[in-house]
Amino acid sequence: MTRDRHCLPLLQAEIDTYSQPVVFMHQDCHVCRAEGFRALTRVRIDCGGRSVIASLNVVTGAGWLGPEAAALSGAAWSALRPGPGDMGQFSHPELPEAASLVRAKVYGERLGQAQFATIIEDAMAHRLSDLDLAAFVTACAGEQLNTCETIALTRAMQAAGRTLDWIGGPVLDKHCVGGLPGNRTTPIVVAIAAAAGLVIPKTSSRAITSPAGTADTMEVMAPVALDIAAMRRVVEAQGGCVVWGGALGLSPADDILIRIERPLDFDSDGQLVASILSKKAAAGSDRVVIDIPVGPTAKVRSAKAAEALSARLRTTARAIGLDLAIFVSDGSQPVGRGIGPALEAMDVLKVLRRTPDAPDDLRERALALAGLLLEMSGKTAGAGRARALLDSGAAEQRFMAICAAQGGFTEPVAAPHRLPMAASRNGVITAIDNRRIARVAKLAGAPQQARAGVLLAARPGTLVQRGHPLFEIWAETPGELAYARDFANAQEEIFRIEEPK
Amino acid sequence: MTRDRHCLPLLQAEIDTYSQPVVFMHQDCHVCRAEGFRALTRVRIDCGGRSVIASLNVVTGAGWLGPEAAALSGAAWSALRPGPGDMGQFSHPELPEAASLVRAKVYGERLGQAQFATIIEDAMAHRLSDLDLAAFVTACAGEQLNTCETIALTRAMQAAGRTLDWIGGPVLDKHCVGGLPGNRTTPIVVAIAAAAGLVIPKTSSRAITSPAGTADTMEVMAPVALDIAAMRRVVEAQGGCVVWGGALGLSPADDILIRIERPLDFDSDGQLVASILSKKAAAGSDRVVIDIPVGPTAKVRSAKAAEALSARLRTTARAIGLDLAIFVSDGSQPVGRGIGPALEAMDVLKVLRRTPDAPDDLRERALALAGLLLEMSGKTAGAGRARALLDSGAAEQRFMAICAAQGGFTEPVAAPHRLPMAASRNGVITAIDNRRIARVAKLAGAPQQARAGVLLAARPGTLVQRGHPLFEIWAETPGELAYARDFANAQEEIFRIEEPK
Predict the structure, then answer these.
(1) Chain A residues with CB inside 8 Å of B72's CB?
(2) CB contacts, 8 Å: A263 with chain B
């Protein structure tokens, strides 16, 4: 073969296409012409023993990229890691084995353990296109994964990343299905469980579509981007931690599937269960409490749906050796008063510090979850002991020690620009729209601006008069404040206010 | 709302992302920051009364695009057509109605006419992402579209573009399902039918993954990129034409679905039938012959599959008022001797000119199809008359007249660089690999280089000795010739040669 005909120097395109590998090549470059590559062709690029399959975008102008080089998106660049002057070798990729397995699933066949493993491996190696992945997600949607397949997918996803192991045990964990604004129980639960002498090495995620993830909230109070060695030191010293899971490589397959599942927004109990439990298993946990908030604007909308999800979680957990307790909770309203990283951190600290204005709902939810975990541990009493550890200040002390071990505690402070939003009529508050109030917090800058967000000033059930404050918007800049305010003013019913009956 | 916060000037990115609208924005631009846009966010852009929904690629470097403007891919640019200095207004798109219909189909619901129409409309307006479209294609794969749904999808696809109408009739058409290299019967069939005094306004496609489409082959002999008015003049004068359908806007929905279906490569009789018949109906045809080649490397691989497809074609055609005849043919081997635009044009001309070396298989296939069409017209005899029109030279004369009417005939000529490839052993040729021989033609430059391709020198059944020529590679440049040769030499069995029994 005249191999030099396939080669081009590689540049960084400095274009972020999320985790999707994209290669930019000029329409006149000899490789495109020789191989017949056109826009969106899947192209295999080899460089220094590594390879990636990327989608081609064809540069047609005379601007930033000429025919003498190819430019890679961030994801393609980090897959190949070319050195200075390294050439990429371009070819048509072979059809990955996973493509025919996805095809089989689309046609209704049942897949086994080895087949899910192949699909996950090929997805991880970027050998499946986004279209292939969308087809896979679609073919698994609804009830199309049975119990055996759910278990197989869970195992395949766990095996795709590393698994932590911990000396001693049991190793505890908690998880909440579906975001309820302000439902930031994790730091409190971890503090109580660790104060009880238990092991709870908690990894959390950052926000993707919400105004704050647990990692964002925790980061207001202490560093969270720890590597595994640092995380291990914290847990060995304090029994628990709250760190960002993204840097640990525990669930790389989940990251890839979630990028496709999220915009499609198909409900699939099978994929949800595999996503949750593969991460818990990878984190080395063996006893896990799952919080399932149920409400009309929550992820799980009915008691029946919660029951079906619970059953599948239990069966799958048993198969992979996890003890599970499920806590079905009220998901109709935001929890606590703050929405946004710093605002939620303030709520967490008030609960731990037992201040008079600590939000009761957040406190009680955290106590219920911690009680279940303590009970499961088999080492201590449950609800009563959890409450005692919180009331005595032992949980607060342990939390401050964890923050110190993670790199040092920082007290959250208020944003410089704040604006109260008032009721436009008299009546009783009957509901708060979870999604719209979250949107206001995001438009104010959360979670990128940690101090931005929304502080709720009234709860459902409250009788209000016109002009009574409902919530306050917090922002870093007057512009962002005005932007969130304009959105809020344009909405009809973030707070539903009705005639008292 | 402070609307100016959402606006940016629009530039052309000069990046071809096929028909996928993409917007490039700098990570520091105020719109990304204010709206929380990240890579691959779906972004709505309004400009001068038009709008498009594009996927966001985020520019991170300091190179070709700064934060003060947004750059559009070709598809996004042509959807908005901004004037000089026009600003784009950026926002989060509403969820299109079609997304929830796709979701319903994914969950196994049956969709009706209005619902398919909404899906096709939203797809056409780029309101569905590629992931949504992949989910739709997946949810329709295999047997998941029933007869009623196939009919509804066909109607929705036809309604999405314009429909031609013709004075007089019947209006004839032909179509071949799935590419067999060299199966270039169309120009011959059109010439015979037009010579019989019938109306056959044929639109054809260019190659997408094959070494030549009918439009590519015809273009070697005459212009094919006619608009509707010019096409109409040709058909009114000569009874028939062979023009490129791509410029006529007859099947815009098909273009969008095919971009997703092709890489996924799911067999779906429902979508295939809707794609074929919606185009025939849009072209104004009312009597159509469909060629279904069956063979191990063809699109349809068994007689049983051909029967199922035929049944669905017949039912759907009846529902939308098309008369149909189906011709199930041998799809095991390439047809004729040439593969590539000019090489196939030479075969076509030899058949029309009745030269001694005209390929028999191409001639007999064209005669069979033309005979069926003549029969269907109800105006003339079938097979015998088709043969008479070819043998008498009437078809040749009509073909030259059609070429002249389309803008003038050009005689195809051989490529300047040619290389014979010889048998590596003694034996009898038992098969030619359709896909690999097509690949050689493409590596030699077909279809972009019209004269490039492969000329077959031996057919299955031939006894050959080592060194006996099997085929010749034709190319425009020595480099392309060498490239195709190297590929061919690296393959084991483009021609299978076995011990004679």
Answers:
(1) none
(2) 40, 42, 129, 131-132
- To the nearest whole Å, the CA of B491 is away from the closest chain A CA by 12
- CB contacts of A488 in chain B (<8 Å) are none
**CA-to-CA distance for A496 and A484, rounded, in angstroms?**
19
pLDDT tens figures, A65-75: 888 999 999 88
Taking the Cβ of residue A12 and every Cβ of chain B, the question of whether any pair is shorter than 8 Å is answered with yes
Domains of chain A from N-terminus onward: 3-91 (2.40.40.20), 97-159 (1.20.970.10), 172-247+268-406 (3.40.1030.10), 417-498 (3.90.1170.30)
Task: State how far the alpha carbon of A240 is from the alpha carbons of A156, A188, A374, A469, in Å.
Answer: 27, 11, 14, 39
Looking at the complex, does the CB of residue B100 fall below 8 Å from at least one CB of chain A? no
Token look-up 């040769």 returns B485
- Interchain proximity A15–B59, CB inside 8 Å: yes
pLDDT, averaged across chain B? 91
Q: Which residues of B75-100 are buried (b: 16+ CB within 10 A; e: fewer)?
A: bbbebbebeeeebbbbeebeebebbe
Catalytic residue among B173, B267, B330, B391: B267
Handedness of CA B114, B120, B122, B124 (dihedral sign): negative
Task: Say whether pLDDT at B408 is over 50.
Answer: yes
Let me know the angle formed at the C-alpha of A253 by A248 and A258, rounded to the nearest 5 degrees. 105
The token duo for A98 is 């996973």
d(CA B415, CA B452): 6
Residue contact B1–A487, C-beta within 8 A: yes
Residue B2: what pLDDT? 41
Sort out which chain B residues have CB atoms less than 8 A from A131's CB and list them: 130-131, 134, 260, 263-264
Distance of CA B85 to the CA centre of its chain: 37
Structure tokens, B55: 């996927």
How far is residue B189's CA from residue B366's CA, in Å, rounded to a whole number?
6
So what's the pLDDT on residue A228?
A: 93
Active site residue B255: no
Closest chain A residue to the Cα of B55, Cα to Cα? A17
Contact map slice: B 249-288 vs A, CB within 8 A: 259-260, 263-266
Among A7, A15, A130, the strongest candidate for a mutation testing the B interface, having the largest count of B CBs within 10 A, is A15
Q: What pLDDT shows up at residue B4?
A: 47
A17 touches chain B (CB under 8 A): yes
Read off φ and ψ for residue B117, nearest 5 degrees. Answer: -60, -40
Tell me which chain A residue has its CA closest to the CA of residue B486.
A1
Q: What value does the mean pLDDT of chain A take?
A: 91
Instruction: Output the pLDDT for position A92.
Output: 80
Q: Please report, for residues B315, B326, B340, B376, B433, the alpha-carbon distance to residue B292 in angstroms, rounded to integers and kept in the order given.
A: 16, 7, 21, 18, 19
Q: What is the CA radius of gyration of chain B?
A: 25
Residue A207: what pLDDT?
A: 84
Nearest-by-Cβ selection for A260 from B18, B131, B142: B131
pLDDT tens by residue, B222-264: 999 999 999 999 999 999 999 998 878 887 898 888 888 878 8
Q: Which of A1, A63, A106 sits opposite B138 (nearest CB)?
A: A106
Rounded to an integer, the average pLDDT of A88-109 is 90
Triad A151, A154, A155: Cα angle to 5°: 90
Q: Where residue A306 falls among pLDDT bands split at 50, 70, 90?
A: very high
Which strand (E) or helix (H) includes residue A362?
helix A360-377
Whole-angstrom Cα distance, residue A372 to residue A187?
Answer: 16
